[in-house]
Design brief:
This protein is an alpha+beta fold. The chain has four helices and five strands. The chain has a five-stranded mixed β-sheet with strand order 4-1-3-2-5. A hairpin with a 5-residue loop joins β2 and β3. α1 packs antiparallel against α2 and α3 packs antiparallel against α4. It is globular. The N terminus is likely disordered.
């Protein structure tokens, strides 16, 4: 894995690996995790999760995961049926949050998670559920 790969690219690569090859080598996953861990202290991502993700407790699931991972930000439903999440924390916490978003709650069916790296918001202290787009 190239050290010049972007965080978004790394997460997208992981998503692609998860979608196409459930038997990704441990070495590939280790390299991805090491790269993410080496990229600074605080990051923020915007993730759009598509599939069967509304009406299945996805926002609550994301909120619980964020609290357990010490991630700040928010989650909301979008009009197109997807769920949008902004999450901020350490690289390790965001990587774990990304994995949780890919998994989703029991009754969901996550088809795709699109991730964008966005600027950090200083002073944010909680993770909340938003109800309006």
């Amino acid at each position: 894995m190239s050290k010049n790969t972007s965080y978004k690219g790394a997460l997208m690569a992981k998503d692609a690996m998860m979608q196409t090859d459930r038997h990704t080598s441990e070495q590939d996953m280790k390299e991805l995790e090491e790269w993410v861990a080496s990229q600074g202290k605080l990051l923020r991502m915007r993730a759009t999760v598509s599939g069967k993700v509304q009406g299945v407790g996805f926002r609550y699931f994301a909120s619980i995961a964020a609290h357990k991972l010490n991630v700040t930000g928010w989650v909301r439903n979008l009009r197109d049926g997807s769920v949008q999440v902004e999450a901020q924390g350490s690289q390790q916490a965001l990587f774990a949050m990304y994995e949780k978003l890919c998994e989703g709650p029991e009754w969901s069916r996550v088809m795709h998670v699109d991730v964008t790296n966005i600027p950090v918001l200083r002073g944010e202290r909680t993770f909340r559920v938003e109800y309006d787009e």
